[in-house]
Design brief:
Length: 201
């Protein structure tokens, strides 16, 4: 794949050339001995490419542009999660912890002194990659029970009811299960879509 640092050095002329070739020839000329000279060598697009390799320059550039958009979306998502943490401040830093799992980070925000029917803790599961985030909310119920709610950017689900002593372990289990198979990135959704879903309640 065309690396992001290398993409920064690819000029608009190279993109225009790839577009021209795609419209003119249908298939790109081979980079190598039989090359027309219209396209750059394959090594420009993939440093590890073998000599004479036939690549699709336009496809490589478009793939790299897509990767750049995903990286930008990931950065904006992470910034939104930081804003979420800062939004819990009440004159002092938010009471939260961070746990690093194999596939991502889990932020646990504590809400002490929550009355019945109110949020006790919120857990944000953030994949290391550009995939969508997920949140688990623990809500105090009757007789010491705790309701476990799951939030994505597009829906809310009741994940069950557990005893208060088991609530944190259940939330972490849900977070770990989500991070093992997170929702694919969706560039059509705003970076703070999860925060918006959490604040709608």
């Amino acid at each position: 794949m065309l690396s992001l640092p290398l993409l920064a050095h690819v000029t608009s002329a190279a993109v225009a050339t790839a577009l021209t070739a795609s419209m003119t020839f249908g298939h790109y000329p081979v980079s190598g001995p039989d090359s027309t000279g219209l396209m750059p060598p394959a090594s420009i697009l993939r440093p590890d490419a073998r000599p004479g390799a036939a690549l699709d320059p336009f496809g490589e550039i478009m793939h790299a542009l897509s990767a750049m958009k995903l990286e930008e979306a990931k950065s904006e998502r992470n910034r939104a999660m930081v804003d979420w943490l800062l939004g819990h401040e009440t004159g002092a830093p938010a009471d939260f912890t961070v746990q690093r799992l194999n596939a991502g980070l889990v932020y646990a925000v504590n809400h002490p002194d929550a009355a019945e029917g109110y949020t006790l803790r919120e857990f944000g599961a953030i994949p290391y990659g550009p995939e969508m985030p997920f949140a688990i909310r623990l809500v105090s119920g009757t007789d010491g029970a705790v309701q476990v709610e799951g939030y994505s950017c597009t829906e809310q689900a009741q994940l069950g009811t557990v005893a208060a002593t088991d609530a944190d372990a259940e939330a972490l289990s849900q977070a770990e299960a989500y991070l093992a198979a997170p929702d694919a990135p969706d560039l059509s959704l705003p970076a703070d879509c999860l925060i918006a879903a959490l604040t709608k309640r």
